[in-house]
UniProtKB/TrEMBL annotation:
Pfam families: DUF5007. InterPro entries: DUF5007. This is DUF5007 domain-containing protein.
Length: 343
């Protein structure tokens, strides 16, 4: 009986060993998992019209679908609409890139510039593993075709270890530079349509002559580039273009108005040393609007109105400047000056 038990146990162990070896051999012969390229992977935008002279990132333009990640993207066959080569968009150019995050609390121009460096890139690129397209600010209408020209056509190669797929005939139709926003320039022709702009918001500002509330139409905002440095100056002028002392805006937080340094305040202007563009990136800071794509400035003052009531007035502007230089922003009170004195 004991011999029978031992033989049975031995048979079971032998069978288990054979099964184990068989399974192991089968597993070794199984093919490796392959990544896939899904048919529902697609770009959701096929025509791109960046404004030249500024970094423009096109995101949310790609749906990964069921494709395995990571995916790798590459622009291929960049060409003019007639099929001829477009070397201006395939050659490398020096561009300014961030190597450390900009936070908005940097204490000097030097600290900001230490976070940027120059690298060589194609002026129009696709982010390697995201499918997002980027036009660098170094692209200029002096050598890159802009509307109304029909522009460029290009293809994209997408790949992973499972294969590759091609997306063809994307259209790149850039617009001419607009050095600042809001802009007075026509997006296609690049020609100025009027001399100035209205303020973003005018709150409780009374005219000195009429005692009537002023609106944005009564205040023209003008942008002027007067040099090639890196400064930003704010000026206020009356209907005859005589200067209004910035000190009249007595509640303005001049030291926190913009992310600038070396403030110079006179009875005709307030000037800062700044790093361009303004704002430096699309990112909300204490100096921007909530979207982070525009600088946000508020000029405030108070006065005593009738009935011994304290009246607070605000002049606001959301803006961006993309071209480095010595820029002046002038607020021209076209019809009458604000009333600063008490009633």
């Amino acid at each position: 009986m004991k011999h029978t038990y031992k033989l049975t146990a031995f048979s079971i162990l032998l069978a288990a060993l054979i099964v184990s070896v068989g399974i192991s051999g089968c597993l070794k012969n199984l093919p490796d998992d392959r990544e896939s390229i899904a048919t529902n992977t697609q770009f959701t935008q096929t025509v791109y019209s960046p404004v030249l002279g500024r970094n423009t990132l096109f995101d949310n333009n790609f749906s990964v679908g069921n494709s395995s990640q990571p995916l790798t993207f590459k622009i291929i066959n960049m060409r003019n609409r007639d099929g001829s080569a477009a070397p201006e968009l395939t050659q490398l150019f020096p561009v300014q890139v961030w190597t450390s995050p900009y936070l908005g609390d940097e204490k000097s121009i030097a600290e900001i510039e230490a976070k940027r460096k120059i690298e060589n890139h194609a002026l129009f690129e696709v982010r390697e593993h995201a499918g997002q397209f980027l036009m660098w600010a170094a692209a200029r209408s002096t050598f890159v075709k802009t509307q109304p020209d029909s522009g460029y056509v290009f293809d994209v190669e997408m790949s992973n270890s499972g294969g590759r797929r091609y997306f063809r005939d994307f259209k790149l139709m850039p617009l001419k530079e607009r050095e600042f926003e809001p802009s007075t320039l026509n997006a296609v022709t690049g020609l100025s349509q009027h001399t100035g702009l209205s303020s973003s918001d005018v709150e409780n500002i009374i005219g000195a002559k009429t005692n009537k509330f002023l609106s944005g139409d009564d205040i023209e905002v003008q942008f002027h580039k007067v040099g090639d440095g890196n400064s930003l100056k704010f000026k206020f002028v009356d209907s005859l273009y005589n200067p209004i002392d910035p000190a009249q805006f007595n509640l303005t937080k001049w030291d926190k108005l913009v992310h600038g340094f070396n403030m110079e305040k006179t009875n005709q202007y307030v000037k800062y040393t700044v790093a361009y563009p303004v704002p430096l990136i699309v990112y909300q800071t204490a100096y921007t609007n909530t979207s982070g794509d525009k600088a946000h400035v508020v000029f405030s003052y108070d006065r005593q109105a009738y009935g011994n009531i304290r009246s607070v007035s605000n002049l606001k502007l959301d803006f961006a400047i993309y071209e480095k230089g010595d820029w002046e922003i002038t607020f021209w009170f076209r019809n009458e000056s604000p009333k600063f004195i008490n009633d």
